[in-house]
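Dear colleagues,

As part of the handover before I leave the project, I'm documenting each prediction I ran so the next person doesn't have to rerun anything. This entry is a single chain, and its sequence is reproduced below.
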Amino acid sequence: MRRDFESRFVGSVAGWLWGLIHPLVLLVSWTFVFQICLKAPLPANAVTTNYTMFLICAQLPWLLFQETVLRSSTCLQDHANLITKTVFPSELIPISVFLSALVSHFMALSVVIASCILWLGQVSAMALLLPIYMFLIGLLGIGLGWVVSSLQVYLRDTAQVVNVFLTLWFWVTPIFITEELVPENLRFLMRYNPMSYIVNAYRDRLLSYRPPNLEELAALMSFGLALFVLGGLFFRHLKRGFADVL
């Protein structure tokens, strides 16, 4: 994990600060387009009237999930020497990708919490529950990362497909839109999207004192564990040929 984190910024003057610069530039761009140019209103039941905080609290979990899955898709190729020249448990590579992304996530989260204190004058004590949702993102991201990384070894178009798929997934996650804005016949895209519940949970934990919905939490945990186990079994099945193909 340490090597993965350091190698991303090796030779860079700003170093790990790029892990903060990228999400901040995205946030400024989105705020400019949607709030200033398009004057998009906040939902009626939004937990805050601050549009920037409304966006950034939802942006955090999505970027952690997206980075884990996207970088996992090529991680076995990037570390082919470990697989072909040593006896190495390759299952650890997507896990190290998630842990490396988690370091940047904690840095960005600290900035958001500081913004809540300085900008809104408070931060909810419910933010102490966020590690639960980070764990859930880890289950989802690593489980899916095992699937796409193993497929990429045999099908080199997998990483491109993952990039397209995540773009579509982003727009059916309630970062900018809410379920009420989606046509009735398409709302299932949000209702059966686990990231929808995690994004909303991040907003609620950071910006309100609403307690977690235990039914949603149990459903997310069940889905995350199922994807983690199935992804692991899929990876173990395909890994037998990794050394030959790589």
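The first helix runs from residue 2 to 8. The radius of gyration is 19 Å.

All the best with the project,
I.
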